[in-house]
Amino acid sequence: MTEIISLTIDSIPVSVPSGFTILKAAETVGIQIPTICFHEACTSNALCRICVVEVEGARTLIPACVAQVSEGMIVQTHSDRVQRARRTILEMLSSTVDLTDSPEILAMMNDYHADPERFPESNPREFDLLDDNPMYVRDYSKCILCWRCVQVCAEDAQYTHAINFSQRGFDTRIDTFYHITLPETTCVFCGQCVAVCPTGALKPKRQWLLETGYSPIEIMSLTRSKRNGNKSRIQPERKLP
Amino acid sequence: MTDPDVSRLLEILPVYAKQGRPALIPVLQKAQEIYGYVSQPAAAAISRALRIPLAEVYGVIEFYSLLYSQPVGKTLIHVCNDPACAVAGADGVFKRMTKTLEFHLDQDSPTREITVERAPCLGLCEHAPALLIQSPHHVIDGAYEDLVSGTSSRHRTKIGGTVSILTANCGKGHPASLEEYQQNGGYLAIQKALQVQPEAVIQEVKTSGLVGRGGAAFPTGIKWEGCAREPEYPHYLVCNADEAEPGTFKDRVIMEDDPHRILEGILIAAYAIGAEKGYMYIRGEYVYPYQVMKTALDEARKAYLIGEHILGTDFSFELELRRGAGAYICGEETALFESIEGKRGFPRVKPPFPTRKGLFGKPTVINNVETLCNIPVIIQHGAAAYRQMGTEKSPGTKLFCLSGDINQPGLYEIPFGMTLREMIFQLAGGIRNQGSFQSALVGGAAGAFASANQLDAPLSFEGLRSFNLPLGSGVITVFDDSRSMPDILLRLAHFFKEESCGKCYPCQMGTQRQLEIMERMAENRLLPGDTERLSDLAATMTDASLCGLGQTASSAISSAMRLFPHLFKIMEG
Ligand SMILES: Cc1cc2nc3c(=O)[nH]c(=O)nc-3n(C[C@H](O)[C@H](O)[C@H](O)COP(=O)(O)O)c2cc1C
Ligand code: SF4
Ligand code: SF4
Ligand code: FES
Q1: For ligand 1, is residue B474 a contact (CB within 6 Å)?
Q2: Is any atom of ligand 3 closer than 6 Å to the C-beta of B503?
Q3: What's the CATH number of domain B160-387, 3.40.50.10140, 1.10.357.20, 3.30.40.10, 3.40.50.11540?
Q4: Is A101 inside a domain boundary?
Q5: Which residue of A has its CA nearest to B549?
Q6: Considering every ligand atom, which ligand is closest to the CA of B544?
Q7: Ligand 2 pocket by C-beta < 6 Å: which residues?
Q8: Residue A8: which CATH number?
Q9: To the nearest whole number, what is the mean pLDDT of chain B?
Q10: pLDDT digit string (tens) for B213-244?
Q11: CATH 1.20.1440.230 spans which residues of chain B?
């Protein structure tokens, strides 16, 4: 028998079974908490922190997607502190990543009055488009490092382990073993990573070709030169400062 | 460039293969020792032998700054870049070294013999400016004669303070051997502990009021009890010797001078929590301390102090020494576990806490080196005697690492309670070169600046807190009034940007944005709105980051904003 936990979310009394996350508990009373990295099918790593909420008595804000409810908990999902953190995270994202293919995040920016130009003179994360296989292209300038693709490629689904990370911190990138091309990896082109990617960083080749709007001949030559270009440009970045 | 043939690696791989994934970082370090870097074929051979996917092996190499996926010079020179060394002229050393070789960082070629890198704090702050030279043949051709004296000995660290309890065997110029340690009463506490039940040992530690010295100040006895009560086994004991907080060198000094004290603390802790296996994770840059610990461990094993049936009892315990590979974040307890497990050092989401699910998912106690060094004292003399030292709320003695613009940088042991002023001006001899005090960074890069108005803060957890200062790991880096605060702040911002693991958004991007604003400040071209940006970044990192690194990455800069608001004003015209 599961225990029933009573708590308050935005002054509304809520009762849910123990083990529920704050995110799920809030949903039961129609309170929406924004999420970015969270995905039902993937291990939750609580890394985007957009879902943070204020829990009375806690020193820091708490990620609602992983934190479990407890008896008597008092939760604020939209306090000033929460809004400030969410807005700033969104503003940092927009100064770092090309969000043109991320409509959900753009909508969120609107909701939180986030200024896309908040951080002037800041370095974005920019990479050349990788077009090294017939199935999909990788445009890591659009990658928000949600880890979903790495996880579905590994223990969350496919156990192919074709991709992981290079570098760390701000300079982290989803990458293959020594930057080799995808066909050289264990990738089986199952497409699961493309399916879970929330930002258009991973895109089916067909869709990408259509979007670019070039004539088939132009596309052919563009792809070829891009491919050659990438070979030289994705040489491992130096690790030294 | 041709990749080296991997036959030498293949010979040793079977030994590591048996241990599986936890052997990954040790074997990568071994490969690098042989070839100077981890080539693609070497990484592939390791992947096959240890059965770890290729991409994950690569991900691990890429995470750690002391592992290289491309060739580097045969001799690697790390020049410390952080505040204590900066004020001692580290930039000049770096420029001089790179100029002598007539290359600049952006022109490095794989064939070069020497690679010079800027490094984060090397934990040698009392000897600033510090360098670490890694070379297979321990020689540097004539190039640096004027910089490197040729003798490989180091000046002794000054050991000061008003008591010498934890530092009783320190400062002698050599590591205390097992015999010396025993002559001074060593290993009596473990004998005493083994005569009582583990619960009694835990009770004594609880009564002593000891709290962790690694930065988080968690009560040690309560941590032990939490782990001891977990029904799941095995339990693990981990000693955190990853000391990398800029300005900190206390754990290094104890490892170098009194390794058996740490081993005895580890043994008592392991007995108390029911652990038969433990790890000591030593910072990668600490090459010499690692050697000392290894020798001490061998001595202890020969004396039946480590291994099966310790001192003839039913208690058995094995300790494995691990070397870090260049990642400050691996000092964070859960990132450290990941690292031992052979992964990138990403901190885990807490809860669950380590006492329930720690190393390999098992109940684990992790303690700092200094914390563990207090244990033999508490057990041998009793909690009541221990509480005679220090204050009511901060019992015991504490090691402080003093560096920067002071006359006598060194390691100081005092009972909690003395003021910051007494520490700097009486014990450490005041400001050097007749300079005057500007500020002190208290608690390390993750700490806060103290101005002259805060010099009367008592050095205890509660005393510092009342002055809005953290004790952190016991760092006091002093700056005289000739020092440029913007330059120091820039270095701190750079440190956090380099060391952020990149897992969570607030810190991954916040440390970069903070660095950019500090760069503007150092160049005297702050933009309108930059202080508000900094405040928003600070609030967001502090409030929403996943781990302590991001939560404290803006602490020092925020304290500077409070103390020196004029620095953050935009210059007119
Ligand atoms: C970024 C970061 C770095 C840390 N580095 C260290 C370290 O080098 N040594 C250490 O003992 N604790 C370090 N800690 C604290 C550990 O997470 C942990 O609290 C400590 O090892 C527990 O031991 P204690 O209770 O004996 O202090 C660090 C924490 C963070 C967040
Ligand atoms: S490529 Fe897509 S799925 Fe993978 S981490 Fe980036 S945004 Fe997430
Ligand atoms: S706070 Fe920084 S170091 Fe900690 S998990 Fe987040 S990105 Fe990594
Ligand atoms: S949705 Fe909770 S941390 Fe990303």
Answers
A1: no
A2: yes
A3: 3.40.50.11540
A4: no
A5: A169
A6: 3
A7: A 143-149, 174, 196-199, 201-202
A8: 3.10.20.740
A9: 93
A10: 999 999 999 999 999 999 999 999 999 999 99
A11: 485-572
The string of DSSP codes covering B31-42 is: HHHHHSS--HHH
d(CA B222, CA B227): 9
- pLDDT confidence of residue B112: 60
Q: What is the pLDDT of residues B157-185, one digit of tens each?
A: 999 999 999 999 999 999 999 999 999 99
CA-to-CA distance for B119 and B128, rounded, in angstroms?
13
Report the b/e string of B34-49 with b at 16+ CB within 10 A.
ebbbbbbebbbbbbeb
pTM value is 0.94
Q: For A111-157, write each residue's pLDDT tens digit.
A: 999 999 999 999 999 999 999 999 999 999 999 999 999 999 999 99
Q: Which amino acid is at A117?
A: E
CB B62 within 8 A of CB B51: no
Give the integer Cα–Cα distance in Å for B256 and B171. Answer: 9
CB < 8 Å to A178, chain B: 40, 43, 58, 69
Determine the CATH number of domain B485-572.
Answer: 1.20.1440.230
Task: Judge if the beta carbon of residue A48 lies within 6 A of ligand 4.
Answer: yes
Question: Are B500 and A162 an interchain contact pair (Cβ–Cβ within 8 Å)?
Answer: no
Q: Which residue has the higher pLDDT, B221 or B74?
A: B221
Judged against a pLDDT cut of 80, whether residue B147 lies above it is answered with no
| Cβ pair A120:B65 closer than 8 A | no
Reported ipTM: the value is 0.93
**What mean pLDDT value characterizes chain A?**
91
The residue among A88, A112, A123, A156 with the most chain B CBs within 10 A of its CB, best to mutate, is A88
Q: pLDDT tens digit string along A53-112?
A: 999 999 999 999 999 999 999 999 999 999 999 999 999 999 999 999 999 999 999 999
Distances (CA, A) of B527 to A119, B507, B530, B532, B561: 10, 22, 6, 10, 16
Question: Are residues A67 and A148 located together in one domain of the fold?
Answer: no
| Distance, C-alpha B341 to centroid of its chain | 19
Burial environment of residue A100 by CB neighbours within 10 A (0 to 12, 13 to 18, 19 or more): exposed
Q: How far is A89 from chain B (nearest CA, A)?
A: 6
CA–CA separation, A157 and A136 (whole Å) = 19
CATH architecture type of domain B75-149:
3-Layer(aba) Sandwich (3.40)
Give residue A162's domain range.
Answer: 136-227
Does B504 contact A93 at a Cβ distance shorter than 8 Å? no
- Is the shortest distance between the CB of B329 and ligand 1 below 6 Å? yes
Nearest ligand by distance to the CA of A63? 4
pLDDT of B148 strictly over 70: no
